[in-house]
Design goal:
Strands 10-11-14-15-13-12 form a 6-stranded antiparallel barrel. The protein has a domain of 143 residues. With 417 residues, the chain is α+β, with helices and mostly antiparallel strands. A hairpin with a 2-residue loop joins strand 9 and strand 10. It contains 6 helices and 23 strands.
Length: 417
């Protein structure tokens, strides 16, 4: 009898615990979603807004609107429906791209069998989230041109401070009359780590394109494969961007079916971009977006208002280090092994104008701020011949002095009209 009397209190405790867990799951999901949207907006690249939100114990639903911070050529309307559980929340929804009238006219008709749907899961205890999206094949047609995309998939996972993205594309084909460009499979892997408000952040990206084929009636060009690596870091003092391009083989089968045209790699790093100025520019962009009309592009005169901040980004004398240019051309019998650096003179920045770069005189003033040097090691004889140097010259020293190029102490000859 005593045990029977305990059943009701135990069931009541279990029911209360379940209700509390459900409520906690709903609250934590909402907090995680809000934090993720704030983190996305803190990057300074996106405008994010919630057009609808209904939170409940068992389910929540809503819709989001994402668009580029600069301009409004397109936007993404994302809806979600969340089913809360004690340990996790399952989420699903739709993803609908919208184009502005000008871009819609330029793109033309889009043929897709259904609205893209996505699925995801939020783990209540760890705060880890994952999202999966698979696009049905679609075709865009305009004035005889056609873009055919097949096998597009995306996976996004992570938690506050650390997000990973993986995008897969089986094949993309662009047809314009008798010309055709085909590429794929394509894999993009990205990792983004940051602290609150993206004061410091780092992002690594790796794009791998297994095969590219360009077909013209007269000839074909094939590239296999291409890898692009990038690493961007914003720390206390500076923004650094490092990149590497690796090209496997470029072939022209109609001209030389057995011999590659070229292959190689290029590595470079841009550094000394003032960190505080970068953060201030991002804040100003977010302010401009907040003040403007969500349906319209950025207000006129934006570049003029940002000019001071943009010039401050250059205040630490940025430098571009080209650490490796290694290119080999079996078909032409040429090889390049070069490295060097360029430096920007940041003194008297108030004498420069970003707005005036469209004028030749202003562009000349900017070029005068650039100095640097490059060395082409073990250069072929034909390169010395092109540059008007003695045929026995094996090392080419390129100097940039106030924007003017010299080679081995001589003025750079005019290589083309």
């Amino acid at each position: 009898m005593r045990k029977e009397r305990l059943i009701a209190p135990i069931l009541a405790v279990i029911a209360v615990a379940w209700m509390v867990a459900q409520l906690l799951s709903s609250v934590l999901f909402e907090r995680s979603l809000r934090q993720a949207l704030e983190d996305l907006e803190a990057r300074g690249e996106w405008r994010v807004s919630r057009t609808e939100s209904r939170q409940g114990w068992l389910t929540s639903q809503g819709s989001l609107l994402l668009s580029p911070l600069l301009g409004r050529p397109w936007r993404l309307e994302l809806s979600y429906h969340a089913r809360h559980g004690v340990l996790s929340t399952d989420v699903e929804g739709t993803l609908l791209p919208r184009l502005d009238s000008a871009l819609q006219k330029a793109v033309g008709e889009v043929s897709a069998p259904s609205i893209p749907r996505w699925q995801g899961r939020y783990h209540t205890l760890s705060g880890h989230s994952e999202l999966r999206l698979a696009l049905a094949p679609f075709v865009i047609q305009q004035n005889g041109r056609e873009l055919d995309v097949r096998g597009a998939r995306m996976r996004l996972e992570g938690m506050f401070g650390d997000w990973r993205t993986r995008v897969l594309l089986d094949q993309l084909t662009l047809t314009d009359g008798l010309a055709q460009l085909t590429l794929g499979p394509v894999v993009l892997e990205s990792r983004y780590t940051y602290i609150e408000d993206a004061y410091h952040f780092a992002q690594r990206d790796h794009l791998h394109i297994e095969h590219i084929a360009l077909h013209y009636p007269a000839y074909d060009v094939q590239v296999t494969p291409i890898d692009i690596h990038s690493h961007m870091v914003l720390d206390e003092s500076e923004l650094r961007l490092k990149g590497k391009l690796i090209i496997g083989e470029v072939r022209v089968p109609s001209e030389a079916p057995e011999t590659p045209l070229l292959g190689g790699r290029i590595e470079a790093e841009l550094s000394r971009l003032n960190g505080d100025a970068v953060r201030q520019t991002i804040r100003r962009l977010r302010q401009e977006a907040a003040w403007g009309d969500r349906s319209l592009p950025m207000a006129e005169g934006l570049l003029a208002r940002l000019e001071t901040d943009l010039l401050k980004v250059l205040s630490d004398s940025p430098r571009l280090d080209v650490t490796a240019v290694v290119i080999d051309s079996p078909l032409l019998g040429l090889s390049v092994d070069a490295d060097g650096a360029l430096f920007f003179d940041a003194r008297r920045l108030d004498e420069l104008s970003v707005l005036g770069l469209e004028k030749p005189e202003e562009r000349a003033r900017w070029l005068e701020r650039i100095d640097g040097d490059f060395i082409w090691h073990d250069a072929p004889t034909v390169a010395a011949l092109w540059l008007g140097l003695p045929l026995g010259t094996r090392e080419l020293q390129f100097d940039v002095i106030r924007g003017v190029w010299r080679v081995n102490g001589r003025p750079m000859p005019v290589l083309w009209p």
